[in-house]
Amino acid sequence: MTIFLRDRPTASIAPALATLAALTALTALVGAASPASASAPGPPPAPGPISAPLTGPAASPAASLPTPATFLAAPAASLPTPATFLAGLTTSPAEPAAYPSPAGLAAPSPAAPTHPASAHPASTSTPASATLALPRPTGPHAVGRDTLFLTDRGRPDPWVPSAGARQLLVSLHYPARPGSGGAPAPYLTTEEARLMLAQRGLEGVVPPAAVAATRAHARTDARPVRGRFPLVVLSPGFGTPRATLTGLAEDLASRGYVVASLDHPYESTGTQLPDGRLLTCAACERVDAQPDMAARNRVLAAVSTGRAADVSFLLDRLTGPRPSWRYAGTIDPLRVGMAGHSIGGNAAASTMAADRRVDAGINMDGTFFAPVPARGLGGRPFLMLGTDAGHRPGGEDGSWDTGWARLDGWKRWLTVRDSGHFTFTDTPVIGEQLGLEDPDVPLSGERSAAITRAYAAAFFDRHLRGRTAPPRLLDGPSPLHPEVVFHQPRPRP
Q: Using DSSP, how many helices (H) and how many strands (E) does the chain show?
């Protein structure tokens, strides 16, 4: 699951000369990011009646926003948190044990001594002119993006009942006609970026506007390619915005999938609705308020099963008789998959257990707080893709051993050497461009993105399209991705 820590130790301020040199190097690094888009810009047509881009009122002043809650620290038996640092710019903080810390996007907060093992000069800002960019999608199609704001009137919000009916904010990426569409789709709003950075201890180090302006490759109001395509639902980690899975969503869409990425309200550092309201992580506060680990785990299991209900409602609105999306006709309702990061991966299994419409699932480094049912998943395929340090058979997270034994269909258990919990998101790519590195997670942002994209696409190509053309990545170790390890645990006696 996604864990963020408050009260990180403070980095000392380095001499001005060293700071200037570090900033010069950082400017050169981030200035090399390519801002190119996958399709040429054009004048945007009038938006459809049911597809609403995020263009709400101006953000509220920072002082008026709720303070993000402290997130749950995992049991002492969990993996030690990797020391994170701003390469050449900050010191490595000492942190309490927790699994896992945000690999690649973490920095000290201003109020404690520095870790004695590191003495890098510190900087308190990133150049506002830096251009951040996601890797280009690898498929043959240009990519369009719509945003849906849906209300499930049959279900109150589980975390803030006074808010009324459960609401969902969904990004839809889809194969688009080249040259169509308007402006590049935004990555985050500035306030969403600010709250995400603040929870990682990076407020005042990285400008929120720079992260919010990260260049994605999808275009708003792009015309879809003719045809019907499999649907893949993406669910992010606990406390993490859906935007952190944008790189994977764009890549799958470029390969011929419709991809629906959800923000589950009150389960993220910040979700800004089209009307300008900003929802913070009430679910995180609920977890933090529990008296012991068993109680916390029960709340986290409820997060996973609650997300399954979110996805079932979304499928109703995308594939039912009265769909809410103007391009719903491009979705083949008989070919549906789901992938998630951290607790979103647990939610993929929970959704498959509750909804037969989901044909295949991927858990990317998520603990099964809500266990895989003893009866299995009805013979449907499932991929477990995780860190080699944390999710090897017999490792720290025993829920994977239990889950593996219960999976009753096609299945693979893969781990990635030198990876971290956030390897399977956009975090390493963006962090690398900002000069943020984690010495305990040496896998580069480029390799992180390449591996995640390749294995997710290979899995869905096989199980939603029946494609097994070379390279057959899921048949065994591949020289294209030597970091990926295949596991085949023997059944327990």
A: 10, 14
Helical segments of 156-235, H only: 190-199, 208-212
**Short-list 135, 120, 78, CA closest to 439:** 120
Type of residue at 320: G
Residue 486 CA to residue 475 CA, distance in Å, equals 9
Query: Can you tell me which residue has the tokens 């301020």?
Result: 13
Q: How far apart (Å, rounded) are the C-alpha atoms in residues 479 and 30?
A: 30
The strand pair at 165-176 and 142-156 is best described as antiparallel
Q: For residue 248, give both structure tokens.
A: 């994977």
Distance (Å, whole) CA 343 – CA 363:
8
**How many whole angstroms separate alpha carbon 228 and alpha carbon 339?**
20
Compute mean pLDDT per 10 residues along the chain, 493 residues long, and list them: 30 30 32 33 33 34 32 31 27 28 33 28 43 96 98 97 96 97 94 94 92 97 97 98 98 98 97 94 97 98 98 98 97 98 98 98 98 98 97 96 98 98 97 90 97 98 93 95 95 62
Q: Residue 425 is encoded by which pair of tokens?
A: 């998101």
Whole-prediction pTM: 0.77
What Å distances lie between residue 171 and 260, 302, 400, CA to CA? Answer: 6, 24, 29
- Nearest CA to 358 out of 236, 464, 470 is that of 464
